[in-house]
UniProtKB/TrEMBL annotation:
One of its GO terms (cellular component) is cytoplasm. GO terms for molecular function: acyl-CoA dehydrogenase activity; flavin adenine dinucleotide binding. It comes from Peribacillus asahii. Its cofactor is FAD. It holds the Pfam family Acyl-CoA_dh_1. Belongs to the acyl-CoA dehydrogenase family. This is Acyl-CoA dehydrogenase. GO terms for biological process: fatty acid beta-oxidation using acyl-CoA dehydrogenase. Keywords: FAD, Flavoprotein, Oxidoreductase.
Length: 391
């Protein structure tokens, strides 16, 4: 890349950041605070961010999207969180769409991608996790039996976010019993479920109240009929398709954590400059300023790994290690920054009007989801360092 193209790239990224900030400025802290109090979905925000084309960043231009890379998509989600918002309300459309884009048929892509790009269809739900299997995805119990031109699906899913606010769902099911396959990763398939048709006709959605406002649900599936034409890719190859999108997910979540971290650091810095105790700014005390400075350093370091992983992804190179490490570093750094911001604010950090407690809860999620930090360490130990498999 020439120096001219690098400068142009930097300029484009800054313009992109500013465009996202402009939209987010329409949704101040009070907007998110009120939603959090009511456990409500940010419908107006999602509509506006969609209308401006940001959620279609990764969809190719031929299908009505922007045709941008994961780097640009990560910048969009970072800026949403940095503004004080929560990209978790809509981020899944970025990476779940990839399963359809990379493995769907020409007919499926032509039918769904343009509508996802213009917002007339939402693909926000991703049905993988189950109550009794958790991260052990190959052991999932939801089964789809083919009968003629339909699959009959039975099972249960849990911690499925945005199912009540989506039109379509990517659903991972087993189509061949695990005892009948050579490898446990075989026999899993991906179905594209029309939620509007499914709800009340074999699919029941029950909201799950959680620590933060994340529109999380539990799904009960009983004799749900899904047309065979909604199978994405080949039957039995679904595990590979799902894994294919996980690197993108890791990078995008890392960017959100970096956005959170920068929000916390800015709030902590501003408060430390303004708050007077014992006739002096509390930020004058090294016991206050050093933790803020350390959090800033760690966010900046995590940001470098995020961009390294994104660059590899956009170049079509292997990036699993970098994607996982970027998520780990960013999640840890944002959680550190969250604690620093809360401690800096003291008692006011627990008051809803300061918004720290809301963002504190939101960023804590990423120590656990979409994959726990311990499992990332297990991955690095085994696949990067060559240590024995630990699970």
């Amino acid at each position: 890349m020439t120096s001219t193209s690098v400068k142009e790239n930097v300029q484009f990224h800054e313009e992109l950041r500013q465009s996202v900030r402009n939209v987010c400025s329409q949704f101040p802290d009070s907007y998110w605070r009120e939603l959090d109090a009511k456990l409500a979905y940010p419908e107006e925000f999602v509509n506006e961010i969609t209308r401006n084309g940001f959620l279609a960043a990764l969809i190719p231009e031929e299908y009505g999207g922007s045709g941008l890379g994961i780097t640009e998509a990560s910048i969009i989600l970072e800026e949403i969180n940095r503004s004080g918002g929560n990209a978790g309300a809509c981020h899944a459309q970025m990476y779940t769409m990839g399963t359809l884009l990379r493995h769907g048929s020409a007919e499926q892509k032509a039918k769904y991608l343009p509508k996802i790009a213009d917002g007339s269809l939402r693909l926000q739900a991703f049905g993988v996790t189950e109550p009794n299997t958790g991260t052990d995805t190959t052991k999932l119990k939801t089964f789809a039996e083919r009968k003629g031109d339909k699959y009959i699906v039975n099972g249960q899913k849990v911690f499925i976010s945005r199912a009540e606010h989506s039109d379509l769902m990517i659903l991972l099911v087993r189509t061949t019993p695990i005892e009948q396959v050579k490898k446990k990763t075989e026999g899993l398939s991906v179905l594209l479920v029309d939620l509007k048709e499914a709800i009340g006709n074999g699919l029941t959605i029950r909201p799950l109240r959680t620590m933060m406002n994340h529109a999380t649900t539990e799904l009960f599936i009983e004799d749900l009929e899904v047309p065979v034409e909604n199978l994405i890719g080949e039957e039995g190859k679904g595990f590979k398709y799902i894994l294919d999108g996980m690197n993108a997910e890791r990078i995008l979540i890392a960017a959100e954590c970096i956005g959170d971290g920068r929000w916390f650091i800015e709030r902590a810095t501003n408060y430390a400059n303004e708050r007077i105790v014992f006739s002096r700014q509390i930020g004058q005390n090294q016991g206050v300023q050093f933790p803020i400075a350390r959090a800033h350093v760690n966010i900046e370091a995590a940001d470098l790994m995020r961009f390294k992983a994104a660059e590899l992804f956009d170049s079509g190179e292997k990036c699993a290690a970098e994607a996982n490490m970027s998520k780990l570093l960013a999640a840890d750094a944002s959680w550190e920054a969250a604690n620093v911001a809360l401690q800096t604010h003291g008692g006011f950090g627990f008051a809803e009007e300061y918004d720290v407690e809301r963002k504190f809860k939101e960023t804590r999620l990423y120590q656990v989801a979409p994959i726990s930090t311990n499992l990332i360490l297990s991955y690095v130990a085994e696949h990067v360092l060559g240590l024995p498999r630990s699970y």
